[in-house]
Amino acid sequence: MSASTQNNDSDQTITGLTTLSKNAQKRILKQQKWEATRALRKEARKEKEKEKKLRKREQQKNADNKDSVKPREPPLKKQKIQTPSSMKVVIDLDFDDYMNDKEIVDLSAQLTRCYSYNNNKAVNPVGLFYTSFSGRLQERFDTRLKEYHNWKNVIIDNKSYLELFPNKQELVYLTADEEEVVLQELDESKIYIIGGIVDKNRHKRLCYHKAKLEGIATAKLPISQYIKLNSRHVLTINHVFEILVDWLETKNWRETLLKVIPPRKFNPDGKKQRRGAAKKNPQLNNDEKNMAKIELNEKSELLGANQR
């Protein structure tokens, strides 16, 4: 085809378009572009189908291997380094007849706390023994707290502590009713006994008399030497246990007592008789309140430091 012929055809096309409306011209140009890109679109569809098939194969492969893929394990909690102590602590449970059913429930909860503290929080865990384990307390554990059968690092025995530890020279029964012998430090060669009873002080001096009848030494914690409480120095079983265990770490009675004893014990306005004492000696009462507030502040600071 000659150059003159090509120019004529081009002129005819342009002339033909120019005789059409603008909208018609746009439609024709759009159709021409569509035809020109047909091959590209076809190639793109093929690539898309290919990718879709690959994704399906991967999904099927993952589904087949689902059981063999191990789930991602959560990060391990930082374990506290424990250095076991050679000291033994006995909780004497020979008081089933002195408690009502609610107190048995409270006792079981306190024993559970002692076990948990010794195994999970204590820096220097002790040898822990629950002796004379029987009666309603054992029944409650067997029916409601069955997991105790899986407890580790604790001896739970129906026998008395004298059957397990016949050498009385090794034994020290801790009781707030002891008036003369006050612990100044713990002897890790000794076996310290805590009375396992919850009685709201109905049976006063019960543990003290039991120890004396059996010819066992008694002692009390040096609470009044280091802090001032607003009530009798009678603590729960788990608090006494925590004090013993924590002292092995701190070797500091005041720090240990402030850490373990609940803040309510320091409440300067907690007792009715203190109101009467305030009328007789207002200055003395204010001094005691100030001391209690100081100890509360120290306890708060100590707890904050331990949490950081």
Automatic annotation (TrEMBL):
Known catalytic reactions = guanosine(9) in tRNA + S-adenosyl-L-methionine = N(1)-methylguanosine(9) in tRNA + S-adenosyl-L-homocysteine + H(+)
Q: Which domain of life is it from?
A: Eukaryota
Among the GO molecular function terms of this UniProt record, one is: tRNA (guanosine(9)-N1)-methyltransferase activity
Which CDD domains does the entry link to? SPOUT_Trm10-like
Q: Write down the Gene3D superfamilies for this protein, in alphabetical order.
A: 3.40.1280.30
Q: Which residues form the active site?
A: D199
InterPro entries from the entry? MT_TRM10-typ (IPR028564), MT_TRM10-typ_sf (IPR038459), TRM10/TRM10A (IPR016653), tRNA_m1G_MeTrfase_euk (IPR007356)
Which residues of this UniProt protein bind S-adenosyl-L-methionine?
Answer: L174, G195, C207, L221
Which Gene Ontology cellular component annotation is one that this UniProt entry carries? nucleus
Top EC category = transferase
Picking any one GO biological process from the record gives: tRNA N1-guanine methylation
Basic and acidic residues biased stretches: 32-76, 286-301
Report domain SAM-dependent MTase TRM10-type positions.
Answer: 73-268
Name the keywords, alphabetized: Methyltransferase, S-adenosyl-L-methionine, Transferase
Q: Region Disordered: start and end of each range? A: 1-83, 264-308
Q: Where along the chain is composition biased (Polar residues)? A: 1-23
As recorded in UniProt, its EC number(s) are 2.1.1.221
Q: Which PANTHER family match?
A: TRNA (GUANINE-9-) METHYLTRANSFERASE (PTHR13563), TRNA METHYLTRANSFERASE 10 HOMOLOG A (PTHR13563:SF13)
Q: State the protein's name.
A: tRNA (guanine(9)-N1)-methyltransferase
